[in-house]
Design goal:
It is a single chain. The N and C termini lie far apart (67 Å). The chain has 12 helices and 8 strands. It has 2 domains: 8-243, Phosphoenolpyruvate-binding domains (TIM Barrel); 252-289. Helices cover 45% and strands 13% of the residues. It is α/β, with parallel strands linked by helices and 290 residues long. Strand 3 (82-86), helix 5 and strand 4 (113-117) form a beta-alpha-beta unit.
Length: 290
């Protein structure tokens, strides 16, 4: 039975119904397939792939070429979920034209929308993309592409002034045409204030329950992230690190003990042909030894 594809209109209707949106990152075909089967509403091909998939220390090292490889794989898998391509560092900051060009590259490989970080300072980029017919999501709060000015991975919006500034940024993004806003690593009340300032959906990652949906990094909830960053808001739903390491350790032990491969892992062959091949092999071994 064909699944109904989630669209921007679907997301707006879910907000009206107060139905929380399930938002996950995905960077490869298997993960996107499993998330889509589990009825995730949105999949983010995040620049977090720099850290989760490529082993970089921050998100700043990944470029459009790598992001598009991940995006293509996810788009091939997503039958239901709306797919958002995450514009990487310096793919949209230089100019409106760069933003449109690189956002368009995500759309051409199958993404339904794109995401970019920043508030009022990138409103013109959002406007340029939406004017070009590209659905754009904003990203406020902790914006990993700006960890230099932010002083690292720090919680944002911890004062009234900071919360109001985030709300004003959200308004600017909405006015520029953003269809939704992601807010990261802020106190729950700050996220609620931002949500109340705009009509478009506001999704949270580490921002409490008073939002229109939750985003998580798939590697975080699966327990497969290799790195030192352990955000307070992460909840593990599985421990794939242990499962994978145990599987590799058991495989290695069976190879070293000659337990694998066993007869049931071999392809059958006609006994007469097997005997002929064995004789040929033994004859060749005898010639080499003489």
């Amino acid at each position: 039975m064909a699944q109904t594809k989630v669209t921007v209109r679907t997301l707006a209707a879910m907000k009206d119904r107060r139905e929380p949106v399930v938002f996950l990152t995905a960077y490869d075909y298997p993960t996107a397939t499993f998330a889509d089967r589990a009825a995730a509403d949105m999949l983010l091909v995040g620049d977090s792939a720099a850290m989760t998939m490529l082993g970089y220390a921050t998100t700043l090292e990944i470029g459009m070429g790598e992001m598009l490889v991940f995006a293509k794989a996810v788009c091939r898998a997503a039958k239901r979920a709306l797919v958002v391509g995450d514009l990487p560092f310096l793919s949209y900051q230089p100019s409106d034209a760069a933003a449109v060009r690189n956002a368009g590259r995500f759309i051409k490989v199958g993404c339904d929308a794109v995401k970019c970080e920043g508030g009022a300072r990138i409103a013109s980029r959002v406007r340029a993309m939406t004017d070009a017919g590209i659905a754009a999501m904003g990203h406020l709060g902790l914006t990993p592409q700006s960890i230099g000015p932010l002083g690292g991975y720090r919680v944002q919006g911890k004062s009234l002034a900071a919360a109001e500034a985030l709300a004003q940024d959200a308004v600017r993004l909405e006015e520029a045409g953003a269809f939704a806003i992601l807010i990261e690593a802020v106190p729950a009340e700050t996220a609620a204030l931002v949500r109340s300032a705009v009509r478009v959906p506001v999704y949270g990652i580490g921002s409490g329950p008073h939002v229109d949906g939750q985003l998580v990094i798939s590697h975080d909830i699966l327990g497969s992230f290799v790195g030192d960053i352990k955000p307070r808001f992460v909840k593990r739903y599985a421990h794939l690190d242990r499962v994978m390491e145990d599987a590799f350790r058991n495989y290695a032990a069976e190879v070293r003990s000659h337990a694998f491969p066993a007869p049931e892992h071999e392809y059958p062959i006609d006994p007469i042909q097997e005997s002929a091949i064995r004789k040929q092999r033994l004859a060749a071994a005898t010639r080499e030894a003489s």
